Amino acid sequence: MTEEIIIAGFGGQGVLSMGKILAYSGVMQDKEVSWMPSYGPEMRGGTANVSVIISDERISSPIINQFDTAIILNQQSLDKFESSVKPGGYLIYDPNGITHEPTRKDINIYKIAATAKAQELGISKVFNMVVLGGFLKLKPIVDKQYIHEGLEHSLPQRHWNLIPQNEEAIEIGKGIIEPVQVL
Amino acid sequence: MARELQLMKGNEAIARAMIASGCDGYFGYPITPQSEVMETLMAEKPWETTGMTVLQAESEVASINMVYGGAATGKKVATSSSSPGISLMQEGLTYLAGAEIPCLVVNVMRGGPGLGTIQPSQSDYFQSVKGGGHGDYQLYTLAPASVQEMYDFVFDAWDIAFKYRNPVLILSDGAIGQCMEKLYTRDNVARWTEEERRKNAPWGTWGKPATRNHNIITSLELDSARQEVFNHKLQAKYAEMKEKEVRFEALNCEDADYIIVAYGSSSRIAMKAMQMAREKGIKVGLFRLITLFPFPTKQLAEVAKRVKGILCVEMSAGQMIEDVRLATECGVKTEHFGRFGGIIPTPGEVLEALENKIIK
Question: What fold, for B248-359?
Fold first, then answer.
């Protein structure tokens, strides 16, 4: 099993930390992992993205340009990465702020209204975990118990009291993801 | 800290390895994409645990000269920077090599020339192994290709630096520096006691006992005849490194029709390209350089005898390829492929270059 993922959105949406929690959960489940962020001036208020690879085998290149799954959180990222999903792969997007829907016919497309749901429930801080939940519903590549350990390792100890809220958000995400186009 | 599995960035691994390997002092100045080295050191506060000194100097020029001063006493001293900062350190590096002072310098390369970009690049190969500063000197140069190697090579660097009384350079780039991967940490090595330091660095300026003359650390010698003798001594040291300290990794080279030669993050991309080529039925191997100086000349020449072509992959306009062609005495078709200025090539591009430039 090798899952190559891009997570892309605005800086501040928790894109990098979502990737880190996913990667750390993979480590806890004894998988090989890599986490490769975009870095630089584009991170300040602009777009942020991270490639995460989780695999049963040694990872060759942490730098990739074709993905099994693209998790897209804004229009710029959709424009940039829609074409990078492997044929037959998955595109998950939050419709918040999306003006042009994805158009590819050879990939699976799912929608997750995580921004709206998180606002409605007053849990905007864990919006990214709602998105992660949606992804894990489609691709259960790491088990629940390891996500818990991943959260413990990714969050400073003073924030461990927030872990149940993060886990709850993941469950909410699993419930609200909906298919747009399934091959 | 005992052996433990963690997820961390390459830059963080460098900093943690410095602390864990008994480093006495770090002097540096922030620059992207290696700022996490000093950030991690400052967050870990090793001065409260191991007693290691960490200081943000006023510039890279100051940093490297602080390294000179600290390391001249036989202590384990390190600095790190990225390309433009390393350029500023070149005078200090030739003085360190000329004064035979062991130390560790880490370059997390970014795109140049000039101030360039802050994205990954590998265009400092010439600077690293062909001089950089003036005079006939060499830095023992290690090129890590993973976060684990960023960590492990710090430990290896001290062994080489003190064995040969020579500066060691870890030549990395922004991709490996910023990437997070799994890392197994090691048991901490204690900093040398005063007694150990006197034993391991008898040449150091740690105070003159009545039993010997002054230890003098300098790179100045006004008598040309003596300077020539000293240069012979340096060259003998470099020859010994070439003989004993070459490191490389040959993957799938035994049955390969073509090989890719690369180091650092390019070698990771090349590994993926190799796998893609093998899936298409093209027998491709990867010859990964671990030491850039000493270059694995003999070992590469041996592999090259059996192949039809070599693709050199480097995030530069083509620097390492010169040493590849020298090693093979241009006996086999050898071409360069690279992106530069901070652009990272993709595995697909590397495979395409292999097919178009070498196989076609």
Answer: Rossmann fold (3.40.50)
